[in-house]
Design goal:
Blueprint lengths: L1 E5 L10 E6 L13 H10 L9 E5 L8 E6 L8 H17 L4 E5 L6 H14 L18 E5 L4 H26 L7 H15 L2 E5 L1 H7 L2 H7 L7 E7 L11 E5 L1 E5 L19 H16 L5 E10 L11 E3 L5 E3 L7 H14 L4 E6 L3 H7 L4 E5 L2 H13 L4 E3 L17 E2 L7 H13 L4 E5 L5 E2 L9 E2 L4 H9 L2
Parallel strand pairs: 1-6, 2-4, 2-5, 5-6, 9-11, 9-14, 10-11, 13-17, 14-18, 15-16
Antiparallel strand pairs: 3-4, 7-8, 8-11, 12-13, 15-18, 19-20
Helix pairs in contact: 2-3, 3-4, 4-8, 5-8, 7-9, 8-13, 9-12, 11-13
Bound molecules: ligand BES and zinc ion (2 copies).
Length: 487
């Protein structure tokens, strides 16, 4: 999709549709004067009050070059932040593309800011996403060809904001495509291939550690999970290095859970809903998406993405409950439940990240059903051992409009992971499951600043929203990119 800035009055913008946000109990902007009678009638009839979610479309509007004029409800003006703008653009895009609109011009009205332009472009690209890649009959699936921002001021600045929005949203859709791939078409090996291809295109380094290398290193926790599958595991490492001399010794690791399918292993999951477990690599997809964006946005800090990729299966060589594995870090783990596999692969990746010199660790994982019980599909669950890194992460999430909630990680929870026969058990019992899972990771982060994001509830949308298709959300891509850019 083409994105660009139009520095022309609204009335002269040529497009299949021009959209303008109207607020509750607020007069329409002056540029809409030629359509005043239509707007008055809309309001008088009660059909359009300016509430968020409302959309009214006028064909062949007198006094405008565009084919349609779309009035978009913005809700209360004081509540209309960048997140609301992003959603308004996304919903409008989704509705209008279905009606055959190919080019949409969006009037930025009063808020001609970079943040507004960036969010609007993100809304158009994210709203345009459809998880219909494998539907052979809807190949002509309707999409927008062009999204134009109409603004009066700040040309060069707005153009770079538009470009940033495009980079971030395309990276997020890249992650959504990966998360949506079924497990027969995205094995650990194929995920590594996709990472390599992305890195080559973006100009990043990519290295993939294979099973032999992991054995040499001693990644017993990761390998224990992988051994139940005929598909070999892969530890994908993608590196971004800023040009020029480093400003500090900080080096950010983005670690993403890459379980291409989670059957639960011998502690097998119920059949009902198991098909969704193809998205158990959404954390991995998110960190790869973030790297794709960072290659273009070029932050000042070195960033390394690590994706431990495995398939959690029930083959004859699968690990059994009660098995004891030795992690890369040397600690032994009693595997009481083979379905708690995410933490087992993540700890070896976190340990490896520290070994290769990463000073700050951030991980994203569809780790627990318990976080879905706690926070539903709205907030990411955030756990940390370091308030400063937490502050940076939460600020990045806020800027990007991704909701995140700081969860507790008191010492009292740590004892849940006691094992009678090994250093640690891989599960902590029924209650506080998201917290004990986080504690398990923390044991391996040690004193290195670390933030863990449990995205089991936020990486997948079960029911479509007006602004977003059902399926993978690509959560964390923008937050991670922002975190690195603001470092
Ligand atoms: N991939 C799941 C977590 C999950 C559950 C993601 C629901 C998305 C939706 C993870 O590997 C898992 O199975 N966790 C177990 C842990 C338990 C055995 C301690 C869980 O949450 O039930
Ligand atoms: Zn599992
Ligand atoms: Zn899992």
């Amino acid at each position: 999709m083409e994105t660009k800035l139009i520095s022309q009055p609204l009335a002269r913008a040529e497009a299949d549709a021009v959209a303008v946000v109207l607020f509750e109990n607020e007069a329409a902007p002056a540029e809409l004067k030629p359509a005043a009678a239509w707007l008055d009638e809309l309001r008088a009839s009660g059909e359009f009050t300016g509430k968020s979610g409302e959309l009214a479309v006028l064909h062949q509007p007198q006094g405008f070059a565009a084919k349609r004029l779309a009035a978009v409800g913005g809700g209360k003006k004081k509540d209309f932040d960048f997140a609301a703008l992003r959603r308004a653009v996304a919903s409008t895009t989704r509705t209008l593309k279905q009606k055959g609109v190919k080019t949409l011009a969006w009037a930025l009205s009063g808020d001609n800011t970079q943040g507004a332009a960036e969010s609007a472009v993100e809304g158009a690209i994210l709203g345009g996403f459809e998880p219909d890649y494998y539907k052979t009959s809807t190949k002509e699936s309707k999409s927008l060809d062009g999204f134009h921002i109409i603004a009066s001021s700040d040309g060069a600045q707005l153009e770079s904001a538009i470009e940033r929005g495009r980079i971030l949203a395309e990276a997020q859709n890249f992650a959504r495509d990966l998360a949506n791939e079924p497990a027969n078409r995205l094995t650990p090996t194929l995920l590594a291939d996709r990472a390599r291809a992305m890195a080559a295109e973006a100009g990043l380094e990519c290295e993939v550690l294979d099973q032999d290398r992991m054995r040499q290193l001693g990644m017993g926790a990761l390998l224990g999970v992988a051994q139940g599958s005929a598909e070999p595991p892969a530890l994908i490492v993608v590196r971004y290095k800023p040009a020029g001399a480093p400003k500090s010794s900080d080096h950010l690791a983005l670690v993403g859970k890459g379980v291409t399918f989670d059957t639960g292993g011998v502690s097998i999951k119920p059949a009902d809903g198991m098909e969704k477990m193809k998205y158990d690599m959404s954390g991995g997809a998110a960190v790869l998406g973030a790297m794709r964006a960072l290659a273009q946005l070029k932050p000042a800090i070195p960033v390394t993405a690590l994706v431990p990729a495995v398939e959690n299966m029930v083959g004859s060589k699968a690990q059994r409950p009660g098995d004891i594995v030795t992690s890369l870090d040397g600690k032994t783990i009693e595997v009481l439940n083979t379905d708690a596999e995410g933490r087992l692969i993540l700890i070896d990746a976190l340990t490896y990240a520290k070994r290769i010199g990463c000073t700050h660790l951030v991980d994203a994982a569809t780790l627990t059903g318990a976080i879905v019980v706690a926070l539903g599909n709205v907030n990411i669950g955030v756990f940390t051992n370091n308030d400063e890194l937490l502050g940076r992460l939460m600020a990045a999430a806020k800027t990007e409009g991704e909701k995140a909630w700081h969860m507790p990680l008191d010492d009292d929870y740590k004892e849940l992971l006691k094992s009678a026969f090994a250093d640690l058990a891989n599960i902590g019992g029924r209650w506080g499951g998201a917290v004990s899972a986080a504690w398990f990771l923390r044991e391996f982060a040690g004193d290195t600043p670390w933030v863990h994001l449990d995205i089991a509830g936020t990486a997948w949308l079960d029911d479509a929203k007006p602004y977003m298709a059902k399926g993978p959300t690509g959560v964390c891509v923008r937050t991670f990119a922002r975190l690195a850019m603001e470092w």
